[in-house]
Specification:
Strand content: 25-35%
Number of strands: 8
Number of helices: 3
Helix content: 10-25%
Oligomer: single chain
Order of helices and strands: HEHEEEEEEHE
Distance between the termini: 30 Å
Shape: globular
Length: about 130
């Protein structure tokens, strides 16, 4: 069955894996999902990710989740904002702050995916894909 919103599906799989304290989650890969995983890794929300057979029809991506020293969750929440039925765009000055800067808003811009801080610094607006905190 085809997925109509792959980013939302990715967020749901990560959220469910974190709730169940799974060490990793595997999902179909795409260029946008790989860029999103790279952004999450750079922000410190996941440990690592790897792609398998990225040129074949069965592209897979494995995301290794990150937990604290006592098993506490690094990703407390993840939420999809812009969706296929209701796109949400913001100019650079109106990019949202998630929990006063403790979380990250993921913005899709003309220069690729970036965080809300990077978008404000570069004075770039775009589509708000989601929040991670």
């Amino acid at each position: 069955m085809p997925v109509t919103d792959p980013i939302s599906d990715m967020f749901c799989q990560i959220r469910n894996a974190v709730r169940m304290q799974q060490p990793a989650v595997e999902m179909p890969a795409s260029k946008q999902k790989v860029a999103l995983a790279e952004l999450l890794r750079n922000e410190g929300f996941i440990s690592s990710f790897e792609t398998k057979a990225l040129g074949s029809p069965q592209q897979k991506m494995r995301i290794v989740l990150k937990y604290g020293p006592k098993g506490e969750k690094v990703i407390q929440g993840i939420k999809r904002i812009s969706r296929p039925g209701l796109r949400t765009y913001r100019v650079a000055k109106q990019t949202p702050r998630v929990y006063g800067g403790l979380g990250v808003a993921i913005i899709s811009t003309s220069r690729g995916l970036m965080t809300d801080r990077q978008a404000r610094k570069g004075n770039i607006g775009g589509e708000v894909l989601g929040y991670v905190w």
